[in-house]
């Protein structure tokens, strides 16, 4: 559990609504102070401020609209309807137009709070016209937090595309066949069941924070040794007949030198993220790369948790890049995750056998025979319990339904 808490501390959580709450509280306190100072002009001040704040973005939308109309109408919008696509894209949405209209209506009904009409119109147009200028120069542009929030909310990050590509183009195709591949591998290599625990029958996917991965795990840790590949899976894909997908089996040595076999590999999109950070034309530095790795991990985890094809067939392992001092950090991390799954997910103890008596049986009837207690209970097939199944089974009874209570007998009393 400690390992899971360490991973959760590194993964960024989705941004909440705290900025909206703070903005609403600040506006409420300011409006309350105006009500106290000059209650007779409160609606006028609020309407004037709202009109100025909405008129500025609308004028900036006109500047954007001129660019889109002249240079991008056919290429970006493919000649689609002007009102339904281009106007909302330039900022002429229903919310902004409605806010400006309501502010103008309130201002017309209650009047502006300034004593001179010339001062009002000068302030209105001066502020509204300077807004597009400051916006175009980037002075009023969105902050990095706003851009990040927009990209995460609309799934526009590089990490989102890589996570969906990794799932749709690889994991969803191979994970449904993983259990059969491991079973075939064990049959040909004559492994004992004790060496392949339930926790090691998943695909362990390594996601390093620095995105710098090695093509051979034994180069990272000499306690990890390549053993063999699982049987190939051939799938017709994108015009390629029999495209080959495979996994590698590694033997991970613990502190006692005992080997633990598992199927482990790095997440291949990490190669893309690392290569992008090495290309100056990609505009992708080390801080951005680390952020994208964390978003990739979070996005892929969310995708796999909702995937029926991949459920209980994988394990994502986030590797901290600050553990370079330990030469066996990778092997210890893999073994810790395997042991954790063995202990927390698959330690299922069968319930003890209980004597079952039919509710309609007479009290004088003999109870069902109990299994012999001579130590050879497992050798009696009639008393040998069926193995527990991991998949739900639908069972039908051919007997007629029985009443909950037994039949009432006639009595002389």
TrEMBL record:
The STING transmembrane domain, residue ranges: 44-155
Compartments it resides in: Cytoplasm, Perinuclear region; Cytoplasmic vesicle, Autophagosome membrane; Endoplasmic reticulum membrane; Endoplasmic reticulum-Golgi intermediate compartment membrane
GO MF, one annotated term: cyclic-di-GMP binding
Keywords: Endoplasmic reticulum, Membrane, Nucleotide-binding, Transmembrane, Transmembrane helix
GO BP annotations listed: autophagosome assembly; cytoplasmic pattern recognition receptor signaling pathway; defense response to virus; innate immune response; positive regulation of defense response to virus by host; positive regulation of macroautophagy; positive regulation of non-canonical NF-kappaB signal transduction; positive regulation of type I interferon production
Membrane topology annotation: Multi-pass membrane protein
Region Disordered, residue ranges: 357-413
Transmembrane region(s): 21-37, 43-65, 86-110
Basic and acidic residues bias locations: 376-389
Keyword check for Nucleotide-binding: yes
Domain STING ligand-binding intervals: 157-342
Similarity comment text for this entry: Belongs to the STING family.
Protein name: Stimulator of interferon genes protein
UniProt source species: Acanthochromis polyacanthus (spiny chromis)
Organism phylogeny: Eukaryota, Metazoa, Chordata, Craniata, Vertebrata
